[in-house]
Amino acid sequence: MEFSIKSGSPEKQRTACIVVGVHEPRKLSLAAELLDKAADGYLSDLLRRGDMEGKVGSTLLLHKVPGIEAERVLLVGLGKETDFGEKEYRAAIATTARALHHAGGTEGTLCLTGLTVSTRDIIWRVRQAVMVAAESFYRFDRMKSKKDEARRPLRKLIFSVAPSGELAPAKQALQEGQAIATGMDFMKDLANLPGNICTPTYLADQARKLAKEHGLKVEILGRADMDKLGMHALLAVAKGSHQPPKFIVVRYSGRKKTDKPIVLVGKGVTFDSGGISLKPGAEMDEMKYDMSGAASVLATIKAAALLKLPLNVIAVVPTVENMPGGGAARPGDIVTSMSGQTIEILNTDAEGRLILCDALTYVERFDPDCVIDVATLTGACVIALGHVVSGLLANDEGLARELLDASQASWDRAWQMPLLEDYQEQLKSNFADMGNIGGRAAGTITAAAFLSRFTKKYEWAHLDIAGTAWKSGKDKGSTGRPVSLLTHFLLARAAAKVGEAAP
Ligand code: BES
Ligand code: MN
Ligand code: ZN
Q: What is the pLDDT of residue 154?
């Protein structure tokens, strides 16, 4: 999909289809009024005759509207003007994308970016428009022998903005939205692949390819390297699988070497059967998505590279397959993590924290500015927060605040949970420094409490994306979250660098 920005009056746009909004009841938006004037009241006549109310999700496609340059006009219902906010704006863009797709046109010019959306500026409106539109065009048909090609696929979306001061920020926002959308598509493609294709080795190959495309540094550690480093918690998870584990490090350098990096760590369990603590059979296929954290951090570094952000960013991906087998770790096994702390593996299905803890120790060597890990870590997070917000826990309130702000700005929302010392008690073990589970109560927090024992040396935040990384049911598929949240966080950090010394 190609996106671009244009300024100019709606009635003068030469385009296959011009898209304007209608509020309920039967009220033309500003852009629609301009079209109406040029068309001598054609649109207001239609509304008066009851052809469209303006309800959310409704559309009306018109051909040969007199007095205007566009070949077609698409009216999109926006609902009541007083109710119109961020959610409705996003819905209107999605409705438009679908309608244009079905209309079979190859191009559309949207005036919706000119709508008033609470206090959101043109940057927000354009970024969101690109992301939502890209979202509705995403298809994953790589594994189908016959692809369902649209007759005349929509190729180009143009966003029409006010000519005044909005053109430059809109163009900048367009690039940002596109970089995020490209990152999200990249994440979705990786996450939607089945476990027999997307193995740790495959992820490592994709990281190499990504690095080559964007001029990034990449390093892949194998089992022997990890053994030497003492990553026995991570290696214990890999033991039941025939797939060798990998440890992926990708670096993007947008600043001088001495600038401390932002480190993103992503859980890369390419399939989580639970291991010897085997999961129940229902929906177990969805555990191919247990590498969503990994995919999201690789996707975010891709977006950072596309945007040439003035930051140093490192993506770290510990990746394994969690399988039962003759060599698999047993419940009760005790391992020594890279940090030297010992762990009693009471449940082999709490494997995410075992691979993450060694990664979190490894990243100390980067002297990070901050570390954010992203993981489909606990079923408890789905119970607590559902599929709406991601869980956020942090050992630093400033970092948590920045991530919450980014989550609001991106509409890829997160909610903070308390990481209090009191929860540590649940991790006590009679035989090792800690157990890897903390019982049924507060499962998301005790998982983070476990990780916090390995993050004492830097500012750290943890995103539990178990409920938000993919959708189940008939729309089963990766959501691309939290790539937008993370990229918005990086964009804000990059903006804060402005005024500091040049790289
Ligand atoms: N990958 C799962 C978490 C998960 C489950 C994410 C369902 C999304 C949907 C994780 O490895 C896991 O199995 N966690 C266990 C931890 C428990 C054994 C303490 C869980 O949540 O049941
Ligand atoms: Mn598990
Ligand atoms: Zn898992």
A: 86
